[in-house]
Write a structure and sequence with these properties.
By secondary structure, the chain is mainly alpha-helical. It folds into three domains: about 45 residues, no CATH class; about 70 residues; about 50 residues. The protein contains five helices and no strands. It is elongated and about 120 Å long. The two termini are about 80 Å apart.
Length: about 190
């Protein structure tokens, strides 16, 4: 038999498309013929898969299907359990955040209420109800103007400082590299 026909039968065998007679033909060929080097691995594999009668050596337990189904069901339950646990954890985290926010707002509200009641008992008018006089409004506006001028001038003075800082860093780098060069020359 030709190697090309055997290769075609082997391809069909590996794809699961051979008949019993095809498999018998392969068995007879491998069992009774010296094969070329490129078919030796296939011969070894094929002969180990089948005994001398041409049947499979592998014994499949009768309850294998039920065991596989049980395993699949157990894995499915496990996956569903993991999903439920993740949902529980997410719910617990959400509830914790909501409870924290409620507590935070409650404490803030109570502190504001207490502050308002202290101001009322002390005879002080709350700031949001305070009516500023014309002189106070002018003083606030003048203070705001002066602070803006100060801020602008302060920012302008920071620019030269930043430039000086860059120049000092460059000088330090030059000195450092020069000193390293001199040390390596001495060694």
């Amino acid at each position: 038999m030709e190697d090309s026909k055997i290769k075609i039968l082997l391809d069909a065998f590996y794809e699961g498309k051979t008949t019993d007679s095809d498999e018998k033909e392969l068995f007879d060929y491998f069992n009774n013929t010296e094969v070329s080097d490129d078919l030796k691995e296939d011969k070894y594999l094929y002969l180990h898969m089948y005994n001398t009668t041409g049947k499979s050596n592998i014994d499949i337990p009768s309850d294998l299907e039920s065991k596989i189904e049980t395993l699949i069901d157990a894995l499915d339950r496990q996956d569903k359990s993991k999903i439920r646990n993740k949902r529980k954890q997410l719910l617990i985290k959400s509830i914790s955040v909501a409870a924290s926010l409620v507590i935070l707002f409650s404490v803030g509200y109570l502190m504001k209420q207490e502050s308002d009641s202290k101001q009322q008992t002390a005879g002080v008018t709350p700031v949001e109800n305070y009516q500023f006089s014309e002189d106070e409004i002018k003083a606030l506006q003048e203070t705001e103007r002066v602070l803006l001028i100060f801020s602008s001038n302060f920012n302008k003075s920071l620019e030269p400082i930043a430039l000086m800082s860059e120049k000092v860093n460059k000088t330090n780098n030059i000195l450092s590299s020069t000193l390293k060069t001199k040390k390596t020359k001495k060694i």
